[in-house]
Write a structure and sequence with these properties.
alpha+beta, Arc Repressor Mutant, subunit A, Umud Fragment, subunit A, nine-stranded mixed β-sheet, two-stranded antiparallel ribbon, about 30% strand
């Protein structure tokens, strides 16, 4: 990160408080709540740091909304967790981040690994259930039988991968669903990454914008 974008200790303290609040409360704090939570007597003393975070690109402020602070960058060591891709928005974009997970606090992981929440039941017989958090490596070439994330005709999907004679078959693990068969050279198919692990959350939070497998 460029020197001018590094955080001072005071800015990092404010950023960490905002980050923790959003992850704990599932909504952004008001300026008054930040000031109170960090022990500032006046909002104006704290807002200097909030404005600096916005200028350096760590948050986005929506000034006409009471809870109008949006996280842009995640904590060091955290991986982004992406959700359903809206029309016209690239899949791996900041606009599509719905959560963060500090994976590297627990295990080493490839530099570009990211997370994806499971929705639906098409992979239930592979023990992938709604609300599970998948870890995806976009640099790992898939082998036959591995589970991947792919875009098919613009829609993200999680399926088991098979390639033979120039044809790719994306196989669900639920007999209620049919395999997806595409030409390996078709521009309707784009490999996103290979699933390398998952975490099953007992206390699943409601997440509305997540990919349907």
């Amino acid at each position: 990160m460029a020197k001018e974008n590094r955080l001072t200790s005071a800015q990092k303290r404010v950023y960490d408080w905002i980050f923790d609040y959003i992850n704990r409360m599932n909504m952004s704090p008001t300026l008054a709540e930040i000031a109170d939570g960090l022990g500032y007597r006046h909002v104006s003393s704290m807002i200097v740091h909030v404005n600096a975070l916005a200028k350096k690109g760590f948050i986005k402020r929506h000034p006409n909304i009471a809870r109008g602070i949006e996280l842009i960058r995640r904590k060091a060591g955290a991986i982004p967790v992406y959700g359903y891709v809206p029309a016209g928005v690239p899949f791996l974009s900041d606009e599509n981040i719905v959560d963060n997970f500090e994976l590297r606090r627990y295990i080493s992981a490839p530099a570009n690994v990211f997370g994806l929440y499971v929705r639906g039941d098409s992979m239930r017989d592979a023990a992938l259930y709604e609300g599970d958090l998948l870890f995806i490596d976009p640099t790992k070439e898939p082998q036959n039988g591995e589970i991947i994330v792919a875009m098919v005709s613009g829609d993200p999907t999680v399926k088991r991968y098979y390639r033979e004679n120039g044809t790719i078959t994306l196989k669900p693990e639920n007999r209620r669903y049919s395999p997806i068969v595409v030409d390996a050279q078709s521009d309707q198919f784009r490999f996103i990454g290979t699933v390398i692990g998952l975490i099953r959350r007992i206390d699943k939070r409601r997440i509305d914008r997540i990919v349907t497998v």
